[in-house]
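Lab notebook, bench 4. The sequencing result for the construct came back, and we need a structural model before the next group meeting so we can plan mutations. Quick request posted to the team channel:

Model the 3D structure of this chain.
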Amino acid sequence: MIEKRLARLVNNEKSTVYSGYTPDAVKGLAMLLGNPQDSIPAVHIAGTNGKGSVAHMLDSITGKAGLRTGLYTSPHLLRINERIRINGNEIQDNEMSACLDEIENAVTAEKGPAPTWFDVLTLIAFMHFSRQGVDIAIIEAGLGGRLDSTNILNPVCTVITDISLDHTGILGADLAAIASEKAGIIKRNTPLVTSNNEGPVFGVLEKRAVELDAESRVMGRDFQARGVRKYEQGLVFDFTTLRRGNETGLKDLALPLESPVQVRNASLAAETAIILKDHFPVIDTKSVREGLARVQIPGRMETLSKDPAVLYDPAHNPASFSALFSAMEQYSNMSITIIFTLMKDKDVQGIMRMIADSGFRAVYYNLDDPRAFHAETGHVPPLHGVADNIEELRDMIRSSPGAQDMYLFTGSTRLYKTARDFCEKQK
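Done. Here's the predicted structure in token form:
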């Protein structure tokens, strides 16, 4: 029911054409709704890769500190309610419906620009968090930052994760242009935590932080992770930070995640948590340690099945595929089939070349989605096959010579349900 009501709105997540968007509608509607976002102490997170992981880590840390925490992330994997949670509990349909009723009434009263699908979801999240009295909200930006629906926030801290080339048709053709859009979330006198510490991206972010008198905390300069090593359930590392003359060291931080890039994300979360202690004294090193050790991030290097072995990861651009392939090195003794789909607005050819170079047997899945790129059997780089549905995929793999030890689904969050369905059909 909620999905059908929202389907009437312009949904940029289902389009490769973004033009003419302004935040005027979401700003006007928020004002009519009493600016619910202003009553929520929040952390605002933008970046190309890792922002969802950092959001989940901060949610876990603040939850372990005993705070009532709201979490707003995107996209969802199976159902839209996943995007809006309080201490892990998804918003209920009736709660979404009640907020949507008020927003629709405000739209009629405003008589201004029509809100987008993401505008409305963002307002529902802010209304829900405000009315449920969360202590803090962790808010992940959707696309970019400067013009994002979430950027009506006045957060207590901003975080900008690794920036790389993505959405170049919207955010800009080079890293400096993209960084400028992401830097749009930086607010005056509000601390900024970032993992970007070199090149044009660092220059853009640091310049903006100085202009706004925002304290910048840069990984590798102000805080760092060292001694990364594996343990049975994931990774362990040592974290150190120096702020206002006080050094904090956390040795043997455990992270139940297999990808080394997650150590960068965990370091961002740990540094942000230490800054949040200025506002929430209950956050301490114990909550950081326990929050990271028990974090659960749906869809990130997630094992969906052990027999057969099925792994899912939402890598969708060259930088995230590079990190994924590095993480897959631990399975070098296994025979791997990569099953992937890509959106038209991604670097399709570049990613396909990376997959060809990986040495994995590759199967492309033609997802029934208006944004999805559709491949043909003779596509270059060469593919083992192209499947249009689960049955074709299953038959293609079954008919192949030699047993495959692992199936890796990747390329888009929109492939997650397909991966889950594949596991069900293999039973």
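The chain has a mean pLDDT of 90.
Will bring this to the meeting.
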